[in-house]
Design a protein that fits this description.
Layout (H helix, E strand, L loop, with lengths): L22 E6 L8 H16 L4 E4 L11 H10 L3 E7 L5 H13 L4 E5 L6 E2 L2 E2 L8 H13 L16 E6 L6 H16 L5 E3 L5 H13 L6 E6 L3 H8 L10 H10 L7 H18 L3 E5 L5 H14 L53 H14 L6 H11 L5 H16 L17 H4 L27 H8 L5 H5 L16 H6 L4 H11 L1
Parallel strand pairs: 1-2, 1-10, 2-3, 3-4, 4-7, 7-8, 8-9, 9-10
Antiparallel strand pairs: 5-6
Helix pairs in contact: 4-5, 6-9, 7-8, 9-10
Length: 525
């Protein structure tokens, strides 16, 4: 086993990641109820885990799958009293930034400071139909917000300075995307998340050792020196079939593995022994690859079974390389970040960097888009300081602002942008940051700093087979997909709703939108 000692030493008083020890956590999924058998089973699992002390923490999901369920804070309080650390999934889908701040006050006051920050699945059916999605902040913005609270947030528009709240917040990344555009932006967004303050990383569930190795290589090559936990899902055959149908956003079930599990399900024990043994071998591989910990999940499992899996993985740890090839599914992937190594079944060293290419059929040329060139020309003509007509446009904005002509000018702007971009009148335009694709009208979750994890084969989680993920389309519009440039993408702050239905052009020239905020920050920093 590769020995690593990168875990942080007490970033908060309740930091569940300890130095020099592989971390094991288990994911609990609250029921759509406040009491009953399902919740009794969760608490039984928690009591057993607290008594045995092999698990470092229990993570509790936040409306998993977009369905309403018991709030994770309630269960976390009960679990913390048992003597084991809870990790609360902190999702952006149902809360605006003020609601987040209020909940963070509550969490700090009750000593619940371990968080896993996620964008969250798109809401599904609730009372009288589908709930309204919030997504006021994306996961990068939420991490930055929590990080600033950790150090004592100072509000610029008032003299208010909040006392530091020592949260320990992590993030999620998926190395299991089939297409280049999806995978590249997953890693680019991971860099932004860690810059925003993510203290640890948990991978999306998946079953391919080569992709798990890829994530480890990427983090090491980029110097992303935070603990990495790999997710091991132990599905029954029912869940495996559901994942295979694409029902669980962003998750992939290899067809060959599904067929194997369907055969195992015909055995006397329903395939349970095979499932647990496979999980033990997968854990041994991840620890052998240098993951600092393991995040285990799966339905209908007792704590005794999870303890057996961890013990078996420890026994198998010295043999991890023997299990690699039985956990490879190369037929599932259209794109691989690093060159494969036939000798090991994993990847060659990452020192040569990623091997990016346009993810298109052989012989297919990247289309020449006159519209993109024209958009960039017009933007540079008017909106780049010191160039073209910028000074003239800026002076005109000064004259138009706060006059009777401003409402007319605003309607004219949105008439043009509505026709071209289905403009949503946000007043804080990010078209120039997004290759002239509007995230307010063309992304179901309004993502500004990278895609969510829910896309599949390039399709949006909400509109599968009907609308491509906006970041896949953005990647295709790039003249040069040079990865280092994507890693240097600037952080975009959350939308300022005070600018709603005001002129984004006037807001730009008068320094009221995010461009002005960024310039002020540069001068201050």
């Amino acid at each position: 086993m590769i020995s690593r000692n990168k875990a942080r030493d007490g970033n908060s008083p309740d930091d569940f990641i300890r130095a020099e020890t592989p971390v094991f956590t288990f994911e609990l999924v609250p029921a759509r109820a406040s009491r009953g058998r399902a919740l009794d089973q969760i608490m039984e699992f928690a009591r057993d885990a607290a008594a045995d002390r092999k698990l470092s923490a229990l993570s509790i999901t936040d409306n998993a799958g977009g369905h309403p369920a018991l709030n994770p804070v309630s269960l976390s309080r009960e679990i913390m009293k048992l003597g084991i650390e809870p990790v609360i999934h902190f999702s952006c889908k149902d809360k605006n930034r003020n609601s987040m701040e209020s909940q963070l006050f509550e969490l700090d006051r009750t000593g619940l400071r371990n968080l896993l920050v996620l964008t969250g699945d798109y809401p599904r059916h609730g009372f009288s139909g589908v709930a309204k999605p919030v997504f006021d902040l994306d996961s990068v913005q939420a991490l930055k917000f929590i990080n600033e609270l950790t150090h004592g947030l100072r509000y610029t528009h008032t003299s208010l300075c909040l006392q530091p709240m020592p949260f320990f917040a992590g993030c999620v990344v998926s190395p299991f995307k089939r297409h280049e555009a999806e995978q590249v932006f997953q890693y680019a967004k991971l860099v932004l998340k860690i810059k925003a303050g993510a203290a640890y990383v948990i991978s999306q569930m998946g079953f391919d050792a080569c992709r798990q190795h890829e994530l480890r290589q990427f983090m090491d090559s980029m110097g992303l020196d935070v603990p990495l936990l790999g997710t091991i899902l132990i599905p029954d055959v029912r869940l495996a079939r559901i994942i295979s149908r694409g029902v669980v956003p962003g998750c992939i079930m290899p067809e060959r593995l599904l067929k194997k599990m369907e055969h195992e399900a015909t055995l006397k024990d329903g395939g349970l022994e095979a499932r647990l043994e496979r999980a033990s071998r997968q854990i041994a591989i991840l620890l052998g690859l240098g993951y600092e910990g393991i995040h285990i999940s799966g339905p209908g499992l007792s704590y005794r079974q999870i303890a057996m899996v961890m013990e078996r993985a420890h026994i198998l740890s010295s043999q991890w390389q023997e299990f690699v090839r039985e956990n490879l599914y190369p037929e599932e992937w259209n794109f691989k970040f690093y060159e494969p190594d036939p000798a090991t079944g994993l990847n060659k060293p990452a020192d040569t960097g990623p091997r990016l290419r346009w993810d298109r059929p052989e012989g297919h040329k990247k289309p020449f888009r006159i519209s993109g060139r024209l958009e960039r020309f017009v933007h540079n003509l008017f909106f780049i300081p010191g160039q073209g007509l910028y000074d003239t446009a800026s002076a005109a904005a000064e004259r138009i602002s706060n006059t009777d002509f401003e409402p007319v000018f605003t309607r004219l702007e949105y008439m043009v942008k509505g026709l071209l971009y289905s403009c949503q009148h946000c007043g804080d335009c990010t078209l120039d940051d997004m290759e002239f694709l509007c995230p307010q009208s063309q992304c179901a979750k309004f993502m500004l700093n990278g895609p969510c994890g829910g896309s599949s084969d390039g399709w949006c989680e909400v509109w599968p087979n009907r609308r491509q993920c906006i970041y896949v389309r953005l990647y295709e519009k790039l003249d040069d997909p040079e990865f280092r440039k994507l890693l240097d993408r600037k952080y975009l702050p959350p939308r300022n709703w005070a600018l709603f239905r005001t002129s984004s052009w006037l807001n730009f020239f008068l320094g009221r939108d995010h461009h002005g905020i960024q310039e002020k920050n540069k001068k201050m920093g």
